[in-house]
Amino acid sequence: MHAFTYYAPTRLCFGQGVCSSLGEEVRKYGNRVLLVYGGGSIKRTGIYQKVMEQLHGTTVWELSGVEPNPKIGTVRRGVEMCKKDHVEVVLAVGGGSAMDCAKAICAGALYDGDPWELVLNSSKVTGALPLITVVTMAATGSEFDAGGVISNPDTNEKMGLVSPKLWPKASFIDPVFTYSVPRSQVVAGSCDILSHYMEQYFTTGVNLIGEGFLESEMKAVMYYTPVALKEPENFEARAHLSWAATLGCNRMASLGCDPSVFVCHAIEHELSAFYDITHGIGLAIITPRVMRYILNEKSVSRVAQFARNVMGVKATGNAMEDARAGIAALRELFLSWGVPEGLSALNIGEEHFKDMAAHACAHNPLDRAFVPLTESDVIAILKDSL
Ligand code: NZQ
Ligand code: ZN
To answer: Is the confidence at residue 97, as pLDDT, over 90?
Structure first.
């Protein structure tokens, strides 16, 4: 077990009706509020109304239209509003995109230069406005981590902004708010949650506590996703997916384990950067291909264990056979949820693969991954994912 220091300073309010204390929490940080949300789902579902009812006694400015894969231009608009109107607290209501955009706005509001400079170099973040989140879909875990991912369409880059200043002060997670998430986004969200745990699982050494945590989270997501797809208002299913999402991306599940590199995320962010695709769907397409590619003498026992303990593959006595069966089962599972067969179905060809691979390797320690990868490996994986 490795030494670690962990500090997660976010108040988590989880369960049906938790937003009844949202207003009180917001007012702790100020009365001048920037409300950040996406393309309008919160108005259609009534969540906007519930949030506004909580904000009496405050002045609210609204930044709407945050796009999936939030763009730096939207962050800039939010930063300008914060500076001009002396915003004291930012409230994000939505999925990962609204939350991530809000995080970059919080940091940008206290920075003199262009916020894209912060995305390129997170160490420039020296402060941030307080952020509160209300989560409307189970996916990224942005509500309980210190990172956000922002895209720049001018440079075809999608990059993470990570700083201890970016932990939300409080996050409100009401699983009922996720009842209205469209089927395709439920699938994408679950694939993303699964990936966060898988990325931490596929490493050289996972201690027993981490291993149990990661395996049971993965199994819960696999069990409850079809339930949520069939019965959108099944509270237990939505609650399990929401809680699994919240715990997934902050590395709490793998404390004391060998460090892991988020390989599939590094590759997927390139796909989203160039083609603006849905993060979870990109992950689901490439993950079984990455697993197949890295399967070798060194990785086989871990992949075989995943196959047996998570995918329910019956042990054959031959680890390589078990591992292959586990990868095939994972792919079948994703297909059964409606994930496309490959990138071609998303109109993606190989024309940018070289640039994507170079960028992925330049900005992520893929050479220190469980099975180290080079640019040519990344290109091969992308080609195999077509
Ligand atoms: O924009 P609106 O109208 O709100 O609609 C959204 C959007 O179209 C809709 N939606 C969300 N909640 C809903 C709902 N529709 C109906 N009812 C509801 N209750 O769902 C669509 C997708 O929303 P989005 O926020 O884009 O999804 P997600 O939560 O998957 O976030 C994806 C973004 O987060 C980044 C991804 O790369 C991507 O940019 N990630 C952030 C991470 C983090 N901060 O830690 C880690 C992740 O690995 C990921 O990279
Ligand atoms: Zn993710």
So the answer is: yes
